[in-house]
Amino acid sequence: MSSAVEQLYQLVNLAESKIHLDDFLENLSVIIKKALHSEVGIIALYDESTKELYYFFGSSDEKSEGKNKFEDFTRISDSDDLLNKSANKCLTLNLTAEKITKRQKEYIKRRFGITPESILLSPMISRGKIIGVIEVINHAPKSFYSKYDEKIIKIIAGYSASVIDNSKLFLKNISHKRLSDLGQSIVNSAHGLKNILNNLDGATYIVEMGTVKKNITDVNKGWDILKRNSERLRDLVLDILLYSRPKKPEYKLSDINRVCADVKELIEKNAGEKNVRINLDLCSKQSDYCMDPKSIYRCILNLVSNAVYACEQKGGGEVTIKTQFSDAGELMIIVSDTGTGISKENLEHIFDVFFTTKGSKGTGLGLPVTKKIITEHLGTISVDSKEGTGTSFTIILPKYDCSKKE
Amino acid sequence: METLKKILIVDDEPDSNEYVQAVLSSISEFNTMTAADGEEGLKKAKENLPDLIILDVMMPGLDGFKVFYELRKNEATKKIPVIMLTGVADKVGIRFFKDDMKKYFGIEPVDYIEKPLVPERLVETVNKVFGL
Known about the structure:
The complex is a heterodimer. Chain A is of the alpha+beta class. Chain A has helices at 3-16, 21-35, 81-89, 102-112, 147-166, 174-187, 191-212, 216-244, 256-273, 293-312, 344-347, 366-376, and strands at residues 40-47, 52-64, 67-71, 93-96, 118-126, 129-138, 252-255, 276-281, 288-291, 317-325, 331-337, 380-386, 390-397. The N and C termini of chain A lie far apart (75 Å). In chain B, helix 3 links the parallel strand 3 (52-56) and strand 4 (82-86). Chain B is globular and about 35 Å long. The A-B interface holds A 49-50, 52, 75, 175-176, 178-180, 182-183, 185-187, 189-191, 194-195, 197-203, 205-206, 209, 218, 221, 225, 228-229, 356-360 and B 12-16, 18-20, 22-23, 25-26, 37, 57-60, 63, 65-66, 69, 73, 87-88, 90, 93, 96-97, 100, 103-104, 115-117, 119.
């Protein structure tokens, strides 16, 4: 079998396997490179919403900047007119050294570490729509791509186009993904703190304005903002301190069911106004357990507040606090809700410090603090969530002997 | 009589909205309106076609970057000047965003103002937008 046919065979196999689109594209860049005996294979995708081409994958034999794979997401600049030309005119382009401009040569050299001798590009078209462009580059002196190569690249481009087009995973709106990633990188910072400082500045400004204009309404408004935000600041700082200071639990034999009932009592009224019901499903037998009751109260309160918020976002729902003892004497506390659930992406970050999806209503410290307390109890906390259906947090605390003095 | 300039303030922090409104009131009389999240902001922008939008970046759901992107995609709102308020100084993120927006739309926000807000800076920028 010729190597081109071998690669086509690989491509078909690849498309038939269950593969993520990103992986397909990455493999595709290697396949085209091999099928056409080239040093570099490049995949660019077309974003319909912005009508622009984006680099997606590049695979190179030579290492440039220490790597031979390029995975990025940059918009193809106007200076790379070959890719854009191929896409816009739906043309297969076959260029030899004398037709490649100096600028293009320098650009390829910089990016892929080779000086191009010949370049072959073919647009990926499916159902009359442009999907992207594939490109191969050869740097062997006097090399050129034959008519046969043109046919090969057209076959690969056409086949890949329909694979990509049909793929449910096709990123319809590439730039949106990028923008949202950008937002995410910012999410992890202590954005709450700056907002509070901003509001405190605002409060002072408004009080001053009211004083100068002798306008008592403004003074009162500013004063309210001041009070509200100094309270928020206090809570946040206390959380930060709590989070950053290691603390051995102050173990005390306490009634876990009582702790859960206290949480319910505190939050019930507020939750009811938001159409959220709080249920208790408590173990019936003895419920005394050796733990730090204040800290555990804090954990359950955090989880229940989150659960109420998740239900509230959905217009209402139910939160259940369940306690249970295992045969081995471990205590299990489960807080479940019928709220919005947590997306897969967010699920990875819920215990990250300062990660919040609640905007001004969250400090991004509730879950990290909860986890810290549970860990200090030598316990575990796990989460199970389904977007749109609800979330359930499970805390397992190992048995601890309160009479044990250290 | 001249009609008042319309300014839309989009921020999920109601207290911050108050602050911005107070600072604006020190410049001149404006017809200000507020939105508590990105979606509401986008809706109000399309309905009211304000003369200026002051847009917070960090908001849950639709964040400021996405709102800006949507505004620029829409024929009716694409020319409205936007001042972005950034609660975090993610210089790299903003530079990225700036470059992209310039390339996509040939236009980027009028300015980026960091929180905590310095009133003089907002005044100066708003004056610039309205040529006051």
